[in-house]
Amino acid sequence: MIQTxxxxxxxxxxxxxxxxxxxxxxxxxxxxxxxxxIRTPIIEKTELFSRGVGExxxxxxxxxxxxxxxxxxxxxxxxxxxRPECTASVVRSYIQHRMYADHSPGELTxxxxxxxxxxxxxxxxxRYRQFFQVGAEVLGDSDDPAIEAEVIEMLDWFLGELKITxxxxxxxxxxxxxxxxxxxxxxxxxxxxxxxxxxxDCHHRYATNALRVFDCKNEACRALISRLPTITESLDEASRxxxxxxxxxLDARGIGYTVRPEMVRGLDYYTRTAFEIVANxxxxxxxxxxxxxxxxxxxxxxxxxxxxGFGFAFGLDRLVMALPxxxxxxxxxxxxxxxxxxxxxxxxxxxxxxxxxxxRRAGIAVLLDFSERKMKKALALADKLHARHALIIGENxxxxxxxxLKNLAEGTQESLAIDEIIAKFA
Length: 426
Ligand code: AMP
Hints:
Largest sheet: 8 strands, mixed
Shape: elongated
Number of strands: 16
Distance between the termini: 46 Å
Number of helices: 16
Strand order of the largest sheet: 1-5-6-11-10-9-7-8
CATH superfamily of the largest domain: Bira Bifunctional Protein, Domain 2
Strand content: 15-25%
Radius of gyration: 27 Å
CATH topology of the largest domain: BirA Bifunctional Protein, domain 2
Helix content: 25-40%
Structural class: alpha+beta
Bound molecules: adenosine monophosphate
């Protein structure tokens, strides 16, 4: 038997209603806040991520699915990567299509995406090698912290709408990439005496970008890391002011948060504001549902014009897990057929097909039974399929054009003509 690859999975029909619900709430939020959808390719040149996400990040260093595509005419081949995240792709697209070309000062390009990402991580509950993200990016010449607070307000609305309320917003500032130098020197000096006690990955981080040691999940390293100086303590003046304004904008919106100086986020492109939203219950170790931040300068790194950027991604897989059971149950129920047609006898079955077509054209979800079944068996099947109603069509009903609509939850039944049924479901 051929099965799914480790770290990947089928999202089965029983779960799909929950995915659709989250996608629908997200699309509605994006509409209200002025984001437009973009769909970028799942494969990109490897260089996009090695330059964009950064060589020192865990993602680029050890988690990318990269292969040489020999289809290129010159046969030398081209290094291609399954996208591990989508911000670099969106910024590439922004540059490639010159979306900034007719911008007025302060005008923003607001984009969102939904789709699969790929990282070769150790699979566990809530962590997959193919997972799905919904994300958004705000690009332009403005780095107003009010933009950041507005995006977080939108996320707050999403989560409230999905009834995911037991969460904490963690915020931090990782400073300005150009003035980070002094801090990094001090950080390396603080790590050095204990370097031997750090894990192998941290040795690599120490050598390439010492800030990345804060991403380490290793227990032994965590104890050492908790004593290191944080970047938040040594912010440059402008970054400090930016962070203060960001917090004031959150306060003005009544959005609560916790400042977490060790949270630097796993990607090299972040500058200044970084944030995460964690679920306080139900998700176990992989409880970060949203991650995001500011990435001024990413465009320049990718060969584009000077651009400010702010964005986030949330994990659909984890949001599905975080949905409260009552919300999940009502979404599954809403996806069930509204009417299961039970027809008794050949003539009634032929007529039932015409009734089904009319009901479906009126927008009602109808299932037609193609097998010959006794009434009791047919009703049991309707029940098993979670249909809310059975419509009973026998010889008499076919002749009178009035059908028996049975509410399966309540056990009540009434005799109705097609128009009356349609009016009932309108
Ligand atoms: P990141 O791009 O690493 O900032 O991740 C943003 C969000 O995507 C996280 O908060 C998770 O909800 C989700 N995510 C990241 N990696 C995985 C994974 N391997 N499996 C499932 N969800 C993930």
